[in-house]
Design a protein that fits this description.
The chain is mostly helical and 201 residues long. It is built from eleven helices and no strands. The protein has helices at 3-14, 18-30, 32-44, 47-55, 57-63, 65-88, 104-116, 119-127, 138-166, 168-171, 175-198. Helix 2 packs parallel to helix 9, helix 5 (57-63) crosses helix 8 and helix 6 runs antiparallel to helix 11. The chain is globular.
Length: 201
């Protein structure tokens, strides 16, 4: 394991994107537990991309313009759906006294779907990880590096989620703040959707 791999992976993981946005939203809306669950879901969402990279499906996806476009626009559609549901969900960012939580399975399912429908993550596994796999190391080395990447993903996302939960009560008591939070998250999801739509395989 090289320092270069760890630092590069950390930069990739910590850079705000769809998963970070989803985790922060979960932490703000439903507290620390939801933030951790969202972080777990986003981390699990990398597994299909790892499997695809190992089996060669990712290379096929990268080479096939049609397949890339299909996955890409499914991702765009889901991001726009998240934007719409966030904007319309009046209770999405309500601080409840009883600290009710959305079922963990639903949070994890949404988080996994976010990463599953992100073709750029597959391309990341194809283009980035092989650079650190030496001759003769093969699949086991790739799994090892992917496990480290997933551990970093979970740790960083948990930090994002717990930070959001820590400031939750301070920023969620004003109806004006709640309105702008909904608009801000909805706008961010739209922006990420547009960026994904403009991405080229």
């Amino acid at each position: 394991m090289t320092i270069e791999f760890l630092l590069t992976s950390l930069v990739v993981v910590a850079t705000p994107g769809t998963g970070v946005l989803f985790t922060v939203a979960a932490g703000l809306a439903r507290g620390a537990r939801a933030g951790v669950v969202a972080a777990l879901g986003c981390t699990l969402g990398t597994v299909p991309h790892l499997v695809a990279a190992i089996t060669g499906l990712a290379a096929l996806l990268h080479a096939s313009a049609v397949a890339f476009e299909v996955i890409k626009y499914l991702g765009v559609a889901y991001l726009l759906y998240l934007a719409w549901s966030t904007l319309r969900g009046k209770q999405a960012f309500t601080v409840a006294a009883d600290r009710e939580h959305r079922p963990a399975a639903k949070v994890i399912g949404s988080a996994v779907l976010i990463n599953l429908l992100n073709p750029k993550l597959t391309i990341f596994f194809v283009a980035f990880l092989p650079q650190f796999v030496g001759p003769g190391e093969g699949v086991l080395r790739m799994i090892e590096l992917s496990a480290v990447f997933m551990a970093l993903t979970f740790a960083v996302f948990v930090a994002y989620g717990r930070f959001a939960a820590a400031v939750r009560d301070r920023v969620m008591t004003s109806s004006r703040v709640l309105t702008w939070l909904r608009r801000g998250f909805a706008g961010a999801f739209v922006a990420l959707g547009v960026r994904l739509a403009l991405a080229e395989g």
